[in-house]
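## retry 2 of 3
previous attempt timed out at serialization; input unchanged, resubmitting
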Amino acid sequence: MTSDLLWIDAGRRFGFDDLVFRHDRRRPFAQVAGAIDTIVLGPHASAAFPAELRPFIAPALTRRKQCDFSDIITASLGRAWVAADPRVVYVENPVSRLVLDPNRAPPADPIAGLREFYQRLARQRAGESIGFGGVDAVRPITFGGEDVLVEPDSAAAWQTLATTLADVAARTVEVYRACCDEVLRTVLERRPADAPLRVFSLHDTMNTKMRADGAIVVERAPADRLPLWANLGNKGDAQGNAQDDPITLDGAELRRIAAAWADGFGLQGAARDEQILLNRPYKGAYETVHYGARLRALGQPRVGAVQVEFLRETLLGSAAVTRLHTPGTDWPAVDEAHIAGIAAALARAGQALRAG
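## retry succeeded, writing output
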C-alpha cells in the first residue's frame, strides 16, 4: 500500500519561502510584516512522510489512514485565508506529525519517548487502560490505534530509525519552527506598538473515528465532540476567562473573535452560541501556550495566541464526508471553492475586528 501514500522526496530541504504564505509573495516578508495582525500556524497541515522513512512505515497503511492522522485540510484553508486577507500570514509544517509533532513540547530525547510509547502500547493492547501523554512527540499509531510506524526489531534498526528521524526533522519540522519564530519576531519588530496581534494554531478533527475498513463512522464520546464550526482555546473556561492555567489571550478578546467569526459565517438563531465554543473540548496545546506566553509579556489585551480546532466535516463539505463514511482507502480531493468561501468569511471577520 505504501506506493499510494503521500511522500516527500528524499533529501528535500525546505526554506522560509517554501513554508511562509502571504497575500503577495513577490515582496520580501519584511516589507509586509508591519501590516500583519494575524499569524496562522499549521503544525499538522501535512500528511506526507519523508521518503527516507519508507522502510519503517506499516505496509497496511492506506492514504485515507495517513490523511486522517493529519489535519491535512488546514493546509488549503491556511493558504486560502492569506489569499483572502492581506493582513494574514500562514506558516505551514511540510511534514507529517509522525516525524516530530510541533504541537508538543520539544522532547529532550525523542527516541526515548518513542520507546516508552511502544512499551505503553503493548500494555494497552494487552487490555490495560493507559495513555500516551508526554511520550507522543513521535507518535507511531493513528488516533484510532492503527500502526503507522513499525517498531524496530533490533538495536541496529533502532539506530537507523533514530538517525533518519533526526535528519528529516532537521530539514522539515525544525525549519517550520524556525519560520514561526522568524515570522513572529519580524512582525513584532515592524508592527505599531499598540496594534492587535493574534497567533492562531490551526487544526481540524472529525467527530467520528475510523474503523479498520476505512469508514470514518465511530462516534467520539460526547465530551470530545466539536461544535458545528469550531472550538477556540485560550486555556481558559467556557467563557474564555482564566481558570487553572494562565490564559493565552484575554477572555474578552476571545469572545470578540468568536462573535466576529459567527457573524462572518452567517450563524444565526438560538444555536449560534453553540456553533463556536470556547475551550470545549480543546483548551490549547503547546504552540498556543508557547506563543501565548511570549505575547502575554507585552501586556496588551488584544495580543495573544489561540488554538483553533475546526470541525473537519464542515471544512470537507457534505460530498467528501459522505465518501469518508463509507469503507475505502482513498482521500477525497479538496473542494477549493468551498474552502475559499470559508476563507472569505474569516476575512470578513478580520475586517470587522479591525473596525471594532
